[in-house]
Design brief:
The protein contains 9 helices and 19 strands. It has 379 residues and is an alpha+beta fold. The strands form 3 sheets. Strands 3, 4, 5, 6, 7, 8, 9, 10 and 11 form a 9-stranded antiparallel β-sheet that branches. Strands 12-13-15-14-16-17-18-19 form an 8-stranded mixed β-sheet, with helices on both faces. Helix 3 packs parallel to helix 9. The chain starts with 5 loop residues before the first helix and ends with a helix.
């Protein structure tokens, strides 16, 4: 169990976290502010426990909990004072994988500045990794790709947008080489940063490529919320499909060396992003031949005017256009049985699909495994 791997600690604010604090120093060699190394807010221990530490010298109580419905659960664990203003608790029984978690200071929910941060649940939120047997998402001594950031404009809303783009190792040094492209989407409450900082997609790709288990590809990660500030949409993502097809894809195909044609494009996402990917993929079968649905039911949503079941009525047309149709789910998710019904419907209609399931709830631990499987069967 590698508890010191960079993938466990790097996050959006610190790639290589140095958990520092600054305090006023007074001594024989002078007075003034000094930095010193503070304890990490979350630290996996060799015995499998996780140590949580919070600096709150004036607090009366400090607690930590996972999210309700998560593998860590929402049960609160009390931290105890350990001196110098720090509170601490060692918690047992936390399963392997990714965990959002929250702190309560005198009953008030607060973030921990000394723990990894990401954007999830529509807020800045702490997370941590509990090491275990899986290592496919860890940082390894292999060639690494690059993550780029691009600013562009939505023609529908006029808003400025940002997307992240992963390019594989060697992209910059092989100017004559072209690549297929995957448009990969986050879930509700997250944004374009999720697949990098929570999903570790760059490490997953680097590792698969080093083992010759997937094709080289470009991966584009957008925020799903194309919101019209002047004319509010009934549901916050807005007309994401319009932005993707009319604005983002033309930009990517202009700036990057992408291979043309639907067989060289894929679209996939998790939860809400799976539905957006399903909608765009089936609306534009002339653009995408590979579709991935992670932890998302196929049933029509209340905020959509597109009935994807119409695309399943003509199995021959579907098979002509769609090369890979992939569906995955965590086996403890509350939509597990609903998805089994969806798969039975596809089978009855003669729609070919690839299915993957693994133990887990509606969390990044499941989605990392899902994308790992999907990456190995496209292109």
């Amino acid at each position: 169990m590698d508890i010191k791997n960079q993938a466990f600690y790097g996050h959006a604010l610190f790639f290589e976290p140095a958990y520092m604090q600054m305090r006023f120093y007074s001594g024989p060699d002078g007075n003034g502010p000094r930095h010193y190394q503070a304890p990490a807010g979350v630290q996996p221990l060799e015995n499998g426990d996780v140590r949580f530490t919070y600096y709150a010298p004036a607090a009366h109580s400090v607690e930590v909990a996972g999210l309700d419905g998560s593998m860590m659960s929402g049960e609160r664990h009390a931290l105890r004072p350990v001196g110098d203003g720090f509170w601490q608790a060692d918690v047992s029984g936390i399963p392997e994988g990714f965990h959002y978690h929250v702190y309560y200071l005198d009953g008030n929910r607060v973030p921990n500045p000394q723990a990894p941060f990401g954007y999830g649940c529509h807020e800045v939120i702490n997370f941590f990794e509990q090491p275990g047997t899986d290592d496919f998402y860890l940082e390894k001594d292999v060639p690494h790709g690059s993550v780029h950031m691009h600013i562009f404009r939505s023609s529908r809303t006029g808003n400025t947008r940002n997307c992240l783009v992963y390019t594989p190792p060697g992209y910059e040094t092989q100017p004559g080489k072209t690549y297929p492209v995957l448009y990969l989407h986050h879930g509700g409450g997250e944004n374009e940063t999720g697949w990098v900082w929570q999903g570790k997609i760059n490490y997953i790709m680097d590792n698969l490529l080093s083992e010759h288990k997937c094709k080289e590809m470009i991966i584009v990660m957008n925020s799903l919320y194309d919101v019209n500030d002047r004319h509010p949409d009934p549901f916050l993502p807005g007309d994401y499909d319009s932005m993707l097809v009319n604005d983002c894809m033309p930009m990517i195909e202009k700036l990057y060396r992408v291979q043309p044609g639907p067989d060289r494009r894929a679209i996939a996402g998790l939860s809400m992003g799976s539905y957006q990917s399903l909608t765009s993929g089936l609306k534009h079968m002339d653009l995408f031949a590979n579709i991935g649905v992670f932890s998302g039911a196929l049933d029509m949503r209340w905020y959509s005017d597109f009935d994807q079941f119409e695309a399943f009525e003509d199995a021959e047309k579907f098979k002509k256009h769609i090369k890979v149709f992939f569906v995955s789910v965590g086996e403890q998710e509350n939509i597990y049985e609903q998805i089994q019904g969806n798969l039975a419907y596809l089978k009855d209609k003669g729609i070919p699909f690839r299915y993957y399931s693994c133990p887990g709830l509606h969390e990044w631990t499941v989605w990392r495994k899902s994308v790992k499987e999907f990456l190995q069967i496209i292109f």
